[in-house]
Amino acid sequence: MVPFAVGGMAAFGLAGVVLLLFRGWLAAHGHTHWLWICVAGVLIGVPGLITMIVHDANRRRRRALSHGEFRVTDQATR
After folding, report:
1. CA distances (Å), 39 to each of 17, 32, 59, in order?
2. Host domain of residue 51
3. For the chain, what is the domain count?
4. What is the DSSP letter of 32?
5. pTM of the prediction?
6. Which of 10, 18, 11, 50 is nearest to 35 (CA)?
7. Does residue 38 sit in helix, strand or coil?
8. Rounded distance, CA 4 to CA 71, Å?
9. CA–CA separation, 65 vs 40, rounded Å?
10. Is there a domain that residue 14 lies in?
11. Which pLDDT tens digits describe the chain residue by residue (78 residues)?
């Protein structure tokens, strides 16, 4: 699930940057709230991402304790 959260946050961030380029048009047509939606998408995604990372680490730890054949490896070495 972590890649989906990162992808969603990246999509909101990219959309926000693109919308910043059209800030004048958005203001002229009354759509400045679109920028705030992008900001909210990124900001709400941060605690969700942290929660998923912690949950995955705890799940790996629990599985390693209950199943001897399961090995916990460092994510950076893959």
Report:
1. 10, 12, 31
2. 2-59
3. 1
4. T
5. 0.73
6. 18
7. helix
8. 24
9. 38
10. yes
11. 889 999 999 999 999 999 999 999 999 999 999 999 999 999 999 999 999 999 998 988 888 888 767 666 666 655
Residue type, 29: H
| CA count, 13 A, side-chain hemisphere, 72 | 12
> Please, where are the H alpha helices in 1-78?
2-21, 23-28, 33-66
The single residue listed with the structure tokens 């629990």 is 62
State which amino acid sits at residue 74.
D
Tokens 């799940």, located at residue: 59
Nearest to 72 by CA among 55, 61, 2: 61
